Amino acid sequence: MIENEAIQLVVDGKPVDCVPGQTVAGALLAQGIYAFRASPGAGTPRGPFCMMGACQECAIEIDGVVRRACQTPVAPGMVLRLRGAGAAE
Amino acid sequence: MSGSHDVIVVGAGPAGGEAALAASGAGLRVALIDEGPAPGGQVWRAPRTAQAQAAAARDPDGRQGGALRKRLRDASVTLLAGAEVWDAEPGFVVQCLAATGNHALQAPRLILATGAMERVLPFPGWTTPGVFGLAAATAIMKSEKTLPGKEIVIAGQGPLLIAVAVKALELGLRPRAIVDRAGPRDWLRAAPAFAAMPSMLARGARWMARLKAAGVPILRQSAVVSAGGCSALDGVTVRHLPSGRETEIAADTLYIGNGLTPADELHRLLGAAQTRDRLRGGCRTEVDADQRTSVPGLYAAGDGAGVHGALPSVFQGQIAGLAAARDHGALDADAFAARSRPARRRLARALRFADASCRLMTFPEDDLAEMPPDCVVCRCEDVRRSDIEAAMASGAADMNQLKHFTRLGMGPCQGRMCGLNAAGLLAPEGDLRFTPRAPVRPVSMDRLIGEFDYSDIPVPKPAPL
Amino acid sequence: MTRTDYDLAVIGGGIQGASVALFAAREGMRVVLFDKGALARQASGTNAGTLTMQMTRAALIPYALKAHEMWVNAPQWLGHDVGVVACDGLSLAFTEAEEEILSQRAEARSAAGAPIRLVSSREAARIEPGVNPGIRMASHCSVDGYANAYLTGLAYRRALVEAGVELREYTPVSGLGSSGRGYDIRTEGGGVTARQVVLAGGVWIEPMLKWLGIDLPIKTLINQLAVTERAAPVMRTVLGIASGLLSLKQYPHGTVVIGGGWQGEGDRDSGTHRATAASAVGNARLAVHAIPSLRRSRIVRIWTGFEAETADALPAVGPVPGHPGAWVIGSVHSGYTSAPYMARCLTQAILGRPPEMPLFPIDRLLPGHGSH
Ligand SMILES: Cc1cc2nc3c(=O)[nH]c(=O)nc-3n(C[C@H](O)[C@H](O)[C@H](O)COP(=O)(O)OP(=O)(O)OC[C@H]3O[C@@H](n4cnc5c(N)ncnc54)[C@H](O)[C@@H]3O)c2cc1C
Ligand code: FES
Fold it and tell me: Which UniProt keywords are given for this protein, alphabetically ordered (chain A) (predicted)?
């Protein structure tokens, strides 16, 4: 059974509320966050595209490792770093 | 979870789910693997939030998915959900990564039911955040009962356009426009086949009436040719294809799709014979009447073997599962014939309907040539059409050379988004593909290697000095 | 009309064959180059591109040092970019046994001329801040680096065309015969004749030499590599381990290539090869053990390629005995590193000049030849 109590994520240091069962991508999109990262070559802004695990445009750092946000369910206290994936900083 | 089974099924959508149930019903020890958190695949995707669960109970796809999940729970199928298959070795050893680490599964038979991916005809601006695939809309609506965006445009081709628009209305979002490549004549041509499935036809008519009542404009024979905005979408340019007339529509979100293509990475990795087939999404895996591929012990069913849609996938899955049981010796010839008969009959009927919608979704291959030079083809590596042309001028004649000369296909999507489009630019009449390679998904190093001790690494003997 | 007689026919368009063809054409020879596929699509386009002394056999160090210098100056002599980066190299020891191997190997290689010295774990960490602090010691080489091997085909293709070499890609050679003026090179679409011929078929020099009745057994290694997606910088050196079974570096565009000679599966005669999961896991563990922050990244491709090895693991570079004007080049350990210089030496011999450094004639490996 999915509890219906809000979950809090930390996105680039800021708290973001979401609903249990959501994917990380869904949670960010629901907050109006569309740009997740920069393309590593030209550095253009990118966000989720396929929502089914194929395009990798949603890959960000989730709890320190690169994961697809559209395939990762939210968990309380999850720490997300946008632009963490791929951007050769 | 690692270990040996009679048959492994990859993909737990309609095809894979049914295949697993059929094989297990015939007494086989079945492992069913899917990267999604629960069985259902794309079309019967499991609702994930409380709201989505409530909504799924009222929706036909949601109910069918629920039923499949229940049957799988009740059956003795070993389910690995949330596990990405990244390699399959002949024989068969299937490697998959889950939150618990890497698992190696073994079985003498393997059924691939990996489904389809969406194809999108690239256009300038398609990499802008706020541009999504059309199938992405269905995915997020099914699992989370939301749809990102306030001013949305729905574009592309095929029956999904209408379905997504109606679901958006149900969520209180009125699409600014539906942009459909097809014209009324294309839809009319499909009508007789659709009529073979009266329930579907009725549903379609109801949907059209709702869109009309809501005043959603449908721009026919039109396509989105560019999307504007930098870090966020601010509008799209729509071209009426016969006249070339262009109009701008303000939008913060675009959902666009030009049909489906088989997710056939594993089929190709294992060397199953394929045939070029535009109607089936570009390329289909050759199978016999029992869904056996050219590789002994390897079966393929559903859209992963060639795009047919959900209903044919169900029956192909059942046949594949029974065929695996038959080949395993668990069913004799008579039992196999008897058990597979209903599926074969229903498959034949479902195919007529499927072909009509596949025709509407056939990728507009010829339009690749119209792509402007600065249009990005490979999203991961920002390779533009002009880069591809420069590589061709330097002598690139196959996909591997194109990859080496431009880095196209070397990013994390592994060529899934760009491969077919680049091949179409390189040799429109050819049949070029990247060499299939593992891993068929980017592999998280962390999950792959787990915790280990240095002394456990089987370091081979040193090279000579 | 394409001509059918040449001064030199090179069979095999890997780094060895392509380099010989290039140098010979620049010396005024009329050269034709055959490959059964595209240029540098076998070992030479799929290798790890490491230009290192620390994995090179001691006997080859003098050649590799010369070649390293050539690679660094590639824009001058090749005229095109293969993405060469020169940097520090470190070979690591994690155990006492590895310390011992490392010391021995460092000593042998520095005796052969490589600027290698042993450094403490603290100094190693200064040179490579990303390294696992648990190392016991390392050997440092100031001459190290890497190229972007997948650019080899493009760069050589341009250079060869500019030098006037006639390229016959996707043209397998099926046999070789002597003719009055030299050799007949047979292909499906007809043949050509050439006064001299170079067999540069990588692992396929064994079947090539059989055309001339020579039996030189070549072992086929199936090396496996992996590459991560682009990531923020995690390292700045070329890293290896004492046993030689790791090679690791991060390219300027952010990808990390993981190699070191872990083996895949395959078969030279059918030309097929594939990676194995077991090698992928082992190699990745070793890589993460060396650079712990690699744990965060994702592997996007794993691939394999054929590498040739003779019975004594030393090169086959020199004349084909009993067949004047026929030459062989291949089976060079860490062959990508040494290739341009090996090819330069062989080209000198082909032109009738004394090579700058001795070749590695194959007589020593043929049956009936006593041990030397
Ligand atoms: C995975 C891998 C990693 C490696 N990493 C490194 C490294 O980091 N550093 C390093 O220094 N070395 C490395 N090596 C070794 C190095 O790549 C090789 O030594 C070198 O590339 C060999 O070059 P070659 O020209 O002899 O062979 P190849 O590059 O294999 O070229 C032989 C060519 O002959 C052609 N051919 C064969 N038969 C015929 C025929 N009948 N007709 C026409 N053409 C034919 C083939 O198509 C091929 O193009 C690695 C090797 C591999 C496989
Ligand atoms: S949005 Fe495409 S992989 Fe997540």
Answer: Oxidoreductase
